[in-house]
Specification:
By secondary structure, this protein is an alpha+beta fold. It is built from twelve helices and 21 strands. Helix content is 27%, strand content 29%. Helix 2 packs antiparallel against helix 3 and helix 3 packs across helix 4. It is globular and about 60 Å long.
């Protein structure tokens, strides 16, 4: 098959490399000037993806992001007869307009009344002044980043007030935002591929680790590591994503859909959608799935299911400076050698912002310092975590930073709590609760 990748910073690098290794024809368009070194020497590049439309007419166009207008563009290309996997205008709105997403979720029975929408910071400050409390602030636009989210730590909201005033002083007073009541519980996501007609099963369960440092300290990043499994998720999928199937079908969405939630004894509390291939989540799923070409072709053919493997996969993101910021903010060098030791299993190394230099050496590249992801499989979370950490330790990169505690909280008690909450499918020898 032919695949044409369209993106700003080449977030799907590992997928493109895998497709090429499977024997498919791959061309990639990368628009950001500081990302031109990503995948250099590893996949074929094109400066203008539109000039490749005739080349890919019988193939698949892969869109990476949910930037403003890209979902509508994908819908338009589908109407012209192209096969497009990535998202839709509906998916873009769910991800970027957080208040709208909460309205959609409330319409299918999720809790409401704990999220408030504001057109600017001043109105949000007035609200907190009248109703002091602990809140989470999330900005609602196509340019929001993980670092824009602020989780209040004080019950009277003083830290949140200071944060919002600081953002206003930076010239962001008119940005739309939502406030969410802070809810204690376990952060847990559910995701599935949507083939244009229905969600392909089984669904995936995931537990992301977004803070920069071990122990969930430091900045909120896109993701530092994740635990995933395709087992025991049908019950949770049935309560969360599956009721939205008709709406995604009506929108013509084709691509990944993930809903992140907080779960506790009071119920399931939705946080936000990702209606695109999420990086690095898609790479961490790969060891539990079949070949990428087969999976994507299954979406095109609207098959009802995907091939999966049992057990857990743990992924660890290996980053280099300026992460968690960008080279637009901090001037850091690229071109540092990435050396894979003899103990590395290539099947569990997923390229991020890397490329080949003039000598053929794998080196760092790109805008952010999302250098690569390593993964480990296991029948238990502990076994998968141990193998992922062993992979990370066998790779040498100057100034590399990563977390070695991915999955620790699940192992130490959160998994047992999930069992008690009854959110997981029963074990084979267990009667339904």
């Amino acid at each position: 098959m032919r695949f044409l990748g369209v993106g700003e910073t080449c977030d799907l690098g590992a997928l493109y490399v895998a497709l090429k290794a499977e024997g498919h024809e791959v061309r990639v368009s990368i628009s950001h000037p500081l990302a031109q070194g990503t995948l250099a020497g590893l996949v074929d590049r094109t400066e203008d993806w539109r000039a490749e439309l005739e080349w890919v007419r019988e193939g698949v166009i892969l869109f990476e992001a949910v930037s403003e207008g890209l979902g509508a563009l994908q819908d338009e290309l589908r109407a012209q007869g192209f096969t497009v996997i990535g998202g839709s205008a509906f998916g873009d709105r769910l991800e970027n307009d957080r208040a709208y997403a909460q309205e959609v979720l409330a319409g299918i029975g999720f809790p409401s009344g704990h999220v408030w929408r504001f057109d600017g910071i001043a109105a949000a400050l007035d609200f907190v002044g009248e109703r002091p409390g602990r809140y989470v602030v999330k900005f609602s636009d196509a340019d929001h980043a993980s670092g824009d989210t602020f989780v209040g730590g004080l019950d009277d909201g003083r830290d949140l007030v200071a944060y919002l005033r600081g953002r206003a002083a930076m010239g962001e007073a008119d940005r739309g935002l939502i406030l969410m009541a802070h809810i204690n519980g376990i952060e847990m996501g559910v995701g599935a591929y949507f083939n244009g007609e229905r969600f392909m099963t089984p669904a995936c369960l995931d537990w992301e680790h977004k803070r920069f440092f071990p122990g969930d300290l430091g900045e909120l990043t896109g993701e530092m590591g994740t635990v995933v499994t395709y087992e025991r998720g049908q019950r949770f999928f049935g309560r969360t994503l599956q009721p939205l199937e008709d709406q995604f079908r009506a929108a013509g969405h084709v691509g990944w859909v993930n809903l992140n939630t907080i779960v506790n004894e009071a119920g399931v509390w939705p946080l936000e959608f990702s209606c695109r291939f999420g990086y690095p989540g898609y790479t961490i799923l790969k060891p539990l799935q079949g070949r990428w070409g087969e999976l994507l072709n299954g979406m095109v053919e609207r098959r009802p299911s995907i091939e999966t493997r049992p057990g857990f996969c743990v992924g660890v993101v290996l980053t280099t400076p300026p992460f968690p910021y960008s080279r637009e903010d901090i001037d850091e060098p690229v071109g540092l050698p990435v050396m894979l030791g003899p103990a590395v299993d290539p099947a569990h190394v997923h390229y991020g912002e890397v490329g080949l230099d003039a000598t053929g050496q794998l080196v760092t590249s790109g805008l952010y310092g999302w250098t690569l992801v390593v993964s480990g499989l296991g029948a238990s979370i502990e076994a998968a975590r141990r193998r992922a950490n062993a992979q990370a330790g066998a790779i040498t990169i100057a100034n590399v930073r990563y977390r070695r505690d991915i999955g620790e909280r699940l192992i130490q008690g959160d998994w047992d709590r999930l069992e008690r909450l009854g959110l997981l499918d029963p074990l084979p020898n267990q009667s339904p609760g």
